[in-house]
Each structure stands twice: as C-alpha cells, then as structure tokens.
User: What shape does this take?
Amino acid sequence: MLTREAAPLRAQAVKFLRDKIVSGEYAPRTRLTEKRLEQELGVSRTVVREALRQLETENLVEIAPNIGPMVRGLTYDDVVHLYQVRAALESAAGRLAAEVGSPEDVGQLRVLLDKVGAHGQDADVPELVQLKNEFYSQLVRTSGNPVIGEMLANVQARISQMRSVTLSAPGRLSTMLDELGQVVDAIEAGDAARAEQLCRAHVEAAAAIALAHVAGSADQEDD
Assistant: This one.
C-alpha cells in the first residue's frame, strides 16, 4: 500500500506498477483490474486510472477490448525494433564514453563490471538485471550524455521480460561478461570505434536469444 509521501500519489502509483511490470512480477497479458489495484495500493480509482493511462503512453500497458487494462506483451516485430534502438543507444554511449569519459568514470565502469562478475554466478535473474542496470547507468554517465540514459531506460523497461530470458540462457553469463569486458577494455584504451562496435555486438547477441525465444513461443501457440 502506498504511503503519503512528498511525491504525488499518482507518481507513486506509476512507479509501483512500472516496477512490478519491469521486474516480471506482473507478467505479459496480466489483467490489471482497477478494483484490485485500488485495494493493493490503497488509493482512489481516479489515481489508478491516471497511473494506467501514464503506463499506456509508455507502452507497458494496453487496453484490450472487452478485457480492460493488461500488461502489454511483445510481438516478434516489437522485439526486433526495440533491440535495434537499444543497439543504437548503447553503441553511441560506448563511443562517447571512449571519447570523453574521465579516468574516474571509466575506472568505476570497471569496478561495476567486476561486481557483475563477482555476484553473477550466485545471483538470481532479478539481481543480475539490477547489477547490469548499474553498469549501464555508469556507461551513460561516462558518455556524458544523459539523454541517452533517458531513452535507454524506456527501451529497457519495455524489453524487461526479454532480459530475463537472455540472461537465463545457458552459457550467456560468461559470454556476456567477456563481451562487456572487451567493451570496457576499448573504452579504457580510448578506442571509440571499437567500443561502439563491441557495444552493438553485445546487444545483437542478446537480441538473437530473445528473438529465438519469441519465435519458439509463437510456434507453440500455433500448434
């Protein structure tokens, strides 16, 4: 239940629901009934409706005919388009980080990558996603371009369900650490072109896993 904090109740409700969707607790196609959310959040139906409308504009919620609000799922094309944008944003951040990143920021990038490696084997998927989020936040800070971070946050929220799939794939953790290690090496060396290329390759590897999963799910539904 939400508390009476300085932030408006609508903003709290939006964050609460967004976090539930991004974490996977509210899975794709989950119905978001207003009455249940009123009780769960302890707010009025007006606040719930405003929050759902906000999340609809973020493409995290859809209003299904004869069903009502529900967590939006991803089609194959959605996944293609989202990973294309993610690749463009992360590769731009990698290039800028290599060009303008301060030694302190680049050093912190290495620290956070080591943290992912140290905790990765024992971490569950939500924790691993959080560790990677910290790494990406630092990559954006190192790039000096906060707009990339704002745009990337929206993309990451929309493909949150796919991140759990990709990080759970057999052997993905060790491969991911190797990919990001090469990215940090390139940034430390100030090699902007290589950092950009490696960031794109890292995202494309994740995209291949996500697309295979979506295609397989679609085949099962057709059977």
User: Anything to note?
Assistant: The radius of gyration is 19 Å. The domain at 9-71 is CATH 1.10.10.10 (Arc Repressor Mutant, subunit A).
